[in-house]
Amino acid sequence: MQDKLTLMIPGPTPVPETVLQAMGRHPIGHRSADFQAIVHRTTEQLKWLHQTSSDVVVITGSGTAAMEAGIINVLSRGDTVLCGDNGKFGERWVKVAQAYGLDVQVIEADWGQPLDPEAFRAALEADTAKAIKAVILTHSETSTGVINDLETIARHVQAHGTALTIADCVTSLGACDVPMDAWGIDVIGSGSQKGYMMPPGLAFVAMSERAWEAAKSSDLPKFYLDLLKYRKSAQADSNPFTPAVNLYFALEAALGMMQAEGLEAIFARHARHRAAAQAGMTAMGLALYAAAGHGSPAITAVAPADIDAETLRKRVKERFDILLAGGQDHLKGKVFRIGHLGFVCDRDVLTAVAAIEATVQELGLHTGAPGAGVAACAAALAG
Predict the structure, then answer these.
(1) What is the pTM of this model?
(2) Considering only Cβ atoms within 10 Å of each terminal Cβ, which end of the chain, N or C, has fewer?
(3) Which CATH number fits domain 17-260: 2.60.120.10, 3.40.640.10, 3.40.50.920, 1.20.1250.20?
């Protein structure tokens, strides 16, 4: 049926009608008093979401732009960094750091496994010369559905005394608790098309005072992504370049909806959806890809046996007009991923699990009792 596509992928995520309507307003001048008022309000809302008193700047760009900006604004040529790599996006930050000539030391874990905080602790404690200037890692690894222990790793970085924590929170911010100030995180990057419930196009970088101080001496090349320019403009309720005006309208509407729901309720909803998706998959005999106890509240990766995951994903799309995400790189055909972040409700998760179960039954791969997946999902949602 035309115009019935349901997005159950980790981005772009579904967009509320309220946000779409806000975005459909006629543009206004980005140097006008009216727009400056919107910048002022959204800046305060962003601080609320990040649970920080520090500045949060907005870039017209993607989550990758936010992370690249975070890296290049606080580091200098030849700096040593520790980079966690346990999936596609951890791998990306290694490549970004190497592209800027940084001395990158990689702490790896197998895809599907979490990063080991003890490996970071050991490396940081061994650095008696304080050569390590930053630790870069992904909180919610979108490619595998793994959530890393950012809180503990950030605590080890703080104990080091010199290094900064730079965190990719693209699929965790707005899906689970990331109290920036309480955890002592120095840089957080995120993007609008995830937990923010918006279309792609805006990137957000939150920086601690330690990070802003480091930015003053950073000598890596930058112009459009020079965050000191953005900070100076933001303090005047403006932007150094032409921003995506209509996406600011959407941002204000989306953050207003999030404030109305409340942080604790948002986090509880995402935790409930993770539990429901995991219970449904397990009950129908499908294996979860992420290590037990380390599944992200934003996305569930599933590794079906005896079938190409792309075949299952394609069939769900054809029959039910529900779009699931595929595997990346060597996981293509081996896993599919259910996105349950942002503007997703219990009905969406239950519907997606039912569609997957009907498809698994049709393909003769269901190893549980008929309807067991839906029943387990419903029980988790009720619980």
Answers:
(1) 0.97
(2) N
(3) 3.40.640.10
